[in-house]
Write a structure and sequence with these properties.
With 193 residues, this protein is mainly α. It has two domains: 18-49, no CATH class; 57-190, Lysozyme, CATH 1.10.530. It is built from eight helices and three strands. The protein has helices at residues 2-13, 64-77, 82-93, 113-118, 127-144, 149-158, 160-166, 173-190; strands at residues 22-26, 32-35, 44-47. The chain has a three-stranded antiparallel beta sheet, with no helix packed on it. A hairpin with a 5-residue loop joins strand 1 (22-26) and strand 2. Helix 6 (149-158) crosses helix 7 and helix 6 (149-158) packs across helix 8. Mean pLDDT is 82; it is low at 2-18 and 51-62.
């Protein structure tokens, strides 16, 4: 009881230091579990780390420092280079929050709707969700292609099926230019890390 009172007082006094996403999972017996470190894909986002008001409403308000903070956080949490994620954002949308491709990819990291749904990105135009989803997708592709950077970048653009089919970068002009552009940005951003 004393510990519970202490925790309530501590949270009330220091709320700004305790932000963390909270995930919810219901086990087969119907017991609801909450965690800040989801280890299971069956976990659903229950409560986001920061209120949505913290995200600027207009794409022009998204400063590089603001974006870098989230890129760094999600990249490091997934053992990825923030420079790679920044390079993909630059190549995909040039950091435009409301970007939509002719093929329907959305947001800063240009997630396709089916990819957003699978990664549980409910609002692809929310840059926090979009960056988090994009980083998870890059991590997934690295696993599929056993850490091969070029194949991972090609798959981010053309899809993993196309990379498997051709045994590497597909012969599509767009994908070949995309891979070169991302790798150029990656080298540029890596030199600043």
């Amino acid at each position: 009881m004393v510990l519970r009172i202490f925790l309530i007082i501590f949270v009330w006094i220091c709320p700004s230091d305790l932000y963390a996403d909270i995930y919810r999972y219901v086990d087969p017996e119907g017991v609801v579990h909450f965690t800040n470190t989801p280890a299971d894909v069956k976990c659903d986002l229950y409560l986001r780390e920061a209120p949505r008001q913290a995200v600027p409403e207009h794409a022009g308000d998204l400063t590089r420092e603001w974006m870098d903070e989230y890129v760094d956080r999600f990249s490091r949490a997934n053992d990825l280079s923030p420079a790679l994620v920044k390079a993909i954002i630059k190549a995909e949308s040039n950091g435009e929050r409301f970007a939509v491709s002719p093929k329907g990819a959305q947001g800063m990291m240009q997630l396709m709707p089916f990819t957003s749904k699978r990664l549980k990105v409910s609002d692809p135009f929310d840059p926090v969700e979009n960056i988090e989803g994009g980083v998870k997708y890059i991590k997934e592709l690295f696993g599929v292609f056993r850490g091969n950077l070029v194949h991972t970048v090609a798959a981010y653009n053309a899809g993993p099926e196309a990379v498997r089919k051709y045994g590497g970068v597909p012969p599509y002009k767009e994908t070949r230019q995309y891979v070169k552009r991302v790798l150029d940005y990656y080298r540029q951003y890596s030199s600043g890390e």
